[in-house]
Design the sequence.
């Protein structure tokens, strides 16, 4: 049995991600009120995995997740899920668009529908809520007590809450996608598949001139393609950053191992956050000079060079 | 007269930044409800400058500001202000810490006091608000109608609203600082001072292998120190990013001009967001081989090489 | 009238290069006994051009030429000629291969036929001469006074001297080629043709870590292809080197001008040795981002950025 | 017993190098007429070591040695010797400077005294000989049969031959030094000393854009200092080069092993020519992030990351 914590309540996009994650089918699902809460339960052993958002194609990195993974007891990513994001404007039966004075939603969702809102409900002010699903649920349960008459949420959240949908597909960007990661304690590791990604957090040495360039070169010289780079403050002083990076390949791959070892030397500190199958399912393209075979051949050659007796 | 828009209402950290910005003294100050609103007024000509947060030493880049500057009609940064961030827990007279069931604040502020809150008011849930100052103001004006009994805000916001301070200095990180930028329409440019910064947004060509490394090399080969790098989604598809970058030097400096010209060639697109005096006031260290004199001498030498008659 | 000095006497490969150099047709040809002598006459104004060997596909760079161009009064390359190199074994009438006890030739030629000699005239010792043509000429004129009975030289040298050819095409490498350069005083410059090369000599700063890598990056970041790199001692101390480099493009090309200016800043010293049409006649391939148009557009963009009034 | 072949005859600078090589003391010394001959005897097993010149501070790399080591049966360098080079002008008793019509010497030696010769014996022509020592010996034995009356050679060669010295220290560059290498069959390897050098020959892949830059980066990213780079034609076609490189460190050093393995992957071909104590005796400076300890720690860290069970 694998218990999954997720960012709830029911009806969140995170729940949608969890429902589309095959291995979670038939397993217990535990809703949590925040990313921190979900990861705390995982670290504490109350659950065996957690699914949290890490990156949105419109709003960017999810700071809470990036920061929670970069510090505290070690956790590793063991999978990822991509969920297309569509928003609806939902309200209790009887409310019309022209009645709406205020709209409740999570700030990330609001950022993604702002253009639509300005042209369609220009009279409405924005009221922040803890999640899109909570905006819908509260509106269904206590319509009179809140400062808003409509919610921006996922279609499923409107349906679950029993709200009416006043407008469909109101996101400013078609094709918005959120990427979720499945997180575990570092007790096991997904098998390499040839279409893997690896996530790390790198902390620069402050006493070295090269900076970020020196870190990125470690990937480049080994033909490793970087798919995400997010800088996050180390929280120590203004201008002190660490880098959260995804790149193609698995820790068991030779070229990835070589890059990780170099980064371990070059960085002040480094956190390995797991290797896992990419949701895209696209095979990683490997330059023949960085194939496992090329690395193994080079190592055997070096061993033969070194094997001569001393004198 | 220079009219300044700022992220209001009164009592926000942005207002503190504005009050500490010398040139704004004695000028009209116009509070706005969001970064977007402040920049829209500037673009529309209703004000002559806007002051908005861009980066916090604990929470990182301010996405709304980064995105609003990176698109739409061109704007430029003409100055920056650093404001130390301290939070208080404030409530109407008579409320005690043990009475608190919920706390209202802006999500960025809540993220910075979460550790303190978990140990001191573990029973309290979090209620999001539009700003820290709004949390305080609303609590003072309508204490019964809100879902919270206390607010996390700046000391000045508690004072302005007439709330009592139940706890001082509750931020989890001492020395937290937020950096604000003064933004103008691109009609003028601060004079170089020798201690300047420049801000740009770079969009990668998708058809080039080098990627971010190739962009950063343009700074490195000219001895230019990068002080901030933030990746932001271009909003087109998952994994498509642009880079918001600050670096030392002024567009009028030779080495900066050379780097900008190279980036203009190498990038798919690029937005210049201004050169302005650094708040730190520290003189930029320049390697002699990248001084203005070295560039000018090299250009004169090339001119002499090229001046020979053809044949 | 253009007087040409060349490395003589008649019958040298250098003379062959001169004869195949169109502009020299019908002009006075002045044989000289060494590269130094030819360039001294050019520097002294006794001739208007000199043609000297610079690189052989088997033996490598010609040190005498590289060093003579890298120091002394400035000279520039204004053209290049490729000459296929074929050697014969030649002797006075009546001499048979089995009679040969010693063979005279220039050391560079001997190095190129050593394999053939070891298998065909293993009994013969080698006697160094000043040039291949001199070996043949002396043998024809004073067969008894020299320590050798046969010469290794160009077919034309054997013919000119009236020697018999005992063996044709005796070079160990088929397709050996020597590259000659036409050198002038820096009074004019060949017009760009789109298939040009440029030659420079770079002296590293001893106080910089990057070394050669930093120099080569100046070409790489501008998409400039290097076609020859030769290190030569600066003659000051063991391990102190300068670099003689050929690369594609003309000093009038924007990307070449940009690279030269950067090198001027980065190098301790630098000597420009001319831009001239490549003998290959192959058009230089230019990445669109390093085209003249891309550079000009970038410069105009920078000018517009800088044109804002100060404040 | 270790038999040493050297570039003879007696009185050459190579013999001086051999005499100053401690381990050769009391062992058989075998003079050979050329570098090729000396290395052929070593390859054939007739001797156990050979000592040959590889680099002169004024004339640069010794092509014959570089090419002979780069091809044929593998050999390795096991030591190096630096010999200060001083030249004398020597002649049979009774000859005065003003009588001299021609001077015999090896072409490399002549190149190093040309300035002196032009000002002191301007009337004299140059006659090439097989070595400086041979010029002296022949002049002493057959003064009438040669085309020259004086020789440029080492002081010891003049003394051995019984010639009188007409002028001392006639080299154009004070402090000229030639570097000799002790070469063995690849049957053993000098023990690391902390002040070692390694020599390799690298052949570029013709199908890769990076070229030489990509090869040099392998040293730079591991903090390895290159002390010599010599390009040599591969003899296949004009413009096809390999690179003979010396760098600091021993094949048994972690950072050197890592660089060699990378080069093995990146190069079309590569030849390892040995690790040996540097004649300078200066300890190699190692950045802590490239120390053996740093590499070992990184490898252990990777091993622990990889040791998790699959799933």
Sequence:
């Amino acid at each position: 049995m694998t218990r999954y914590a997720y960012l709830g309540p029911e009806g969140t996009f995170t729940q949608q991600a969890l429902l589309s994650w095959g291995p979670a089918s038939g397993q217990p699902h535990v809703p949590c009120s925040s990313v921190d809460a979900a990861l705390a339960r995982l670290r504490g052993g109350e659950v065996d995995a957690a699914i949290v958002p890490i990156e949105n194609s419109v709003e960017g990195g999810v700071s809470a997740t990036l920061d929670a993974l970069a510090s505290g007891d070690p956790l590793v990513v063991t999978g990822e899920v991509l969920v297309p994001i569509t928003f609806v404007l939902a309200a209790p039966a009887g409310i019309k668009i022209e009645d709406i004075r205020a709209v409740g939603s999570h700030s990330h969702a609001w950022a993604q529908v702002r253009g639509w809102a300005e042209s369609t409900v220009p009279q409405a002010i924005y009221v922040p809520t803890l999640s899109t699903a909570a905006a819908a649920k509260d509106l269904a349960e206590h319509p009179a007590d809140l400062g808003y008459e409509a919610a921006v949420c996922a279609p499923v959240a409107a349906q679950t809450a029993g709200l009416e949908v006043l407008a469909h597909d109101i996101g400013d960007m078609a094709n918005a996608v959120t990427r979720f990661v499945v997180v575990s304690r570092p007790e096991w590791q997904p098998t390499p598949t040839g279409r893997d990604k690896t996530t790390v957090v790198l902390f620069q040495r402050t006493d070295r001139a090269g900076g970020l360039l020196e870190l990125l070169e470690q990937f480049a010289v080994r033909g490793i393609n970087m798919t995400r780079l997010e800088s996050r403050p180390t929280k120590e002083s203004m201008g002190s950053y660490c880098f959260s990076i995804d790149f193609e390949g698995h820790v068991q791959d030779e070229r990835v191992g070589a890059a990780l070892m170099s980064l371990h030397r070059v960085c002040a500190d480094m956190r390995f956050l797991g290797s896992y199958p990419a949701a895209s399912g696209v095979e990683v393209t490997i330059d023949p000079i960085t194939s496992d075979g090329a690395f193994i051949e080079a190592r055997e050659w070096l061993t033969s060079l070194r094997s001569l007796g001393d004198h």
